[in-house]
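quick one
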Amino acid sequence: MQTTLVIVKPDGVQRRLAGRILVRFEEKGLQIAGAKMMTIPLATAQKHYKPHEAKPFYPGLVKYMTSSPVLVVALRGKNAIAVVRKMMGATFGSKAEPGTIRGDFAISDGYNLIHGSDSEEAAAFELGLFFQPGEVQTYDMADTPWVYDTSSDLR
Ligand code: ATP
Ligand code: MG
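structure w/ adenosine-5'-triphosphate:
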């Protein structure tokens, strides 16, 4: 089981797509382990996108991410990091495959609706950046035997 960090970015919230984006992950079988609305503080956005610090789009990216509230979500499930990245689609909306979130709802390069952690290290760092200890819940889901085939060792 992995836990990954998803952010419905300011354009996703403003375009009233937060619910539609979240429901895709629920339908897939991922568990909502934590969720909060927030306006990302400047310092947090800078830390979150530090790997892109030297890129020309970095100042605009930080401005965009702090411009309006976001929905920050911790999602848990089997291979959650890769599953979420695949469901998000390619970075640029115009290049993302239909059937992915960006492919279905975004056309912009920068305003691409959603962030997802891209590695275990990034997920651990980002979850710690956006959630306080105890805010990400650990709990059982009633439908786990049906979602994960607990009748065998295949899950
Ligand atoms: P994210 O990190 O937000 O999940 P990603 O991993 O698909 O997205 P990155 O390469 O990490 O893409 O870029 C981080 C974000 O910076 C992108 O999601 C996008 O919002 C913005 N961005 C990346 N490249 C460009 C660009 N060339 N022009 C404008 N914005 C960009
Ligand atoms: Mg990234």
